[in-house]
Write a structure and sequence with these properties.
Layout lengths: L2 H16 L12 H17 L10 H23 L5 H13 L3 H12 L3
Helix pairs in contact: 1-2, 2-3, 3-4, 3-5
């Protein structure tokens, strides 16, 4: 496995979560279903983290590890708490859940700059 595998799992998790957002005439998938897919993707990403840990990329690795851990904590808090009320609160919650995963976007940029 590699960073690309981990990043793909993160993207899949984000897509699962984003499916809860209403679009067009579609109400989106139920939040519980979207959250389950998000947590499953985060679990897959987490399981593959060690495969790309290297001394030369340790800072990037640590930032991604922390981002995954924080996203998982936030997902658990939402799963155990009250459901968001209305579209605006839902969109805010979805964004809040995905924010810690920005570390992966920064890592992708960093690896591209290194030619990896």
């Amino acid at each position: 496995m590699s960073f690309r595998h981990t990043a793909a799992a993160v993207e899949s998790a984000k897509q699962s979560l984003a499916a809860a957002a209403p679009h067009g005439r579609s109400p989106g998938v139920p939040l519980a279903e979207a959250l389950a897919g998000f947590e499953q993707g985060l679990g897959e990403a987490s399981a593959s983290m060690e495969s790309w840990r290297r001394t030369e990329s340790d800072e990037v690795w640590k930032a991604c590890r922390e981002g995954l851990d924080e996203a998982r904590r936030r997902a658990e808090r939402l799963r155990l708490g009250a459901a968001p009320e209305g579209y605006e609160q839902l969109y805010g919650e979805l964004e809040d859940l995905m924010d810690p995963l920005d570390a992966f976007a920064l890592a992708v940029e960093g690896f591209h700059e290194l030619g990896a």
